């Protein structure tokens, strides 16, 4: 999806609010180490949520590789933030369910707030009252 929508700096600015495609890629590269998809982590042993434990003490994966790449998930999140699109609309554009869109958005927002909190200026209450 990223390849189809973000073909120029102008479109990148329109869809995401980020100035250019290179900056989008930089944000993705910064966030990528903090994002681990369940299917990429074979050592993870969840009971019930993603793995099913049977009586032979075997761990079996119950999900498939996700349709959306990590770039697509970041694009989805930024489109929701910048354009204010609803989850059903995003689900239609990205070919996934509204539940997946919601879960992706929540996860990526947490990662973005963790990673970008040092570069986003938030004034304190005194500064807000003064201005």
TrEMBL record:
It comes from the Eukaryota. Pfam families: HTH_Tnp_4. InterPro entries: Transposase_HTH_dom (IPR027805). Residues 67-107 form the Transposase Helix-turn-helix domain. This is Transposase Helix-turn-helix domain-containing protein. It comes from Clytia hemisphaerica.
